[in-house]
């Protein structure tokens, strides 16, 4: 199965072996995904007396949330809902009706983290009607939109919303629209053989305790699913951009945009629309972690490099927290990806004439032509507002990112009008329509 070299494969397996031994994990699986395929798999420990394989099931926990989010985004793309819609528009009669779909997806609704029930991860769940009846205004911990506050309850609500809009259950909608099209037939709501048993490992002795497993019912969208390394590798490829027609690349990119951060100004961890985000070692990762009694799992994709990485383990706690980033480092060290070959591409002469130096007042900017007929406008030397633009049918250009995302660029031979800001070939060119008056440079 390995599609990496022997040296890299040995180093990857050793890192997994160290994690399993030193963190005392009953069984541990890990995989690396490259260009949409599982490039390496490793397993340590025992499941039913044998080494775990890529077909061994583990519980996904909150990785379930990212899959439910895809169903919600499909509903948005079809026009069945808008992310700015209040919940009341689609799920009337709850005290949460003023919260928006986007706030629930991004954990910025202010809703409580856990449901007003018994410890939901360790006890049988309650029906959706019962859960919604228990969730009142007292479950709002923060002003909606104020801050990131992780909410399992929020995804229970989103699962109910998706099921109602589809006229079925969230699980059946997820199976039909996401899991089956991606070939993830090893992903199920309850365990099937071969599967790992969930264990808690004693903190001071080498003994284990079997953890409970139940149907979470209404809380299922927050963490019900079981899956395999094989299926989770397919999910990593999906997150990296191989969507298989399940979701448009633009919508997936939208889900990966940071909507909230949970560790301060210089954030390393955040959340998009149903996806966790991380910045580490120069990488921008998107995926999700998962935790349920007896199980830990995490999947990350780095779309810019076409790489994904995952682990699945049957332990309640105790892992190092660096396993996946270490695996990425090992891959970079032993088998760094080669950059694609540069090749010349045809250029529209009219666009080619626009390239080069422009000025925002006295500040020089470089306008470059991108291979796909897009434009890139960025400060010379960096340190300012940079954006990419794509052509529109009416002859204008739409900003894709940065400060000018969503803004309109209008191009004339002697100036650029970027949402009222005028860029000229010379600093404050008197021949261009610069507002405010241009009287000429002087000492």
TrEMBL record:
Residues 348-425 form the DUF7586 domain. It comes from the Bacteria. Residues 19-320 form the Beta-lactamase-related domain. PANTHER family: D-ALANYL-D-ALANINE CARBOXYPEPTIDASE, D-ALANYL-D-ALANINE-CARBOXYPEPTIDASE/ENDOPEPTIDASE AMPH. This is Beta-lactamase family protein. The lineage of its organism: Bacteria, Bacillati, Actinomycetota, Actinomycetes, Streptosporangiales.
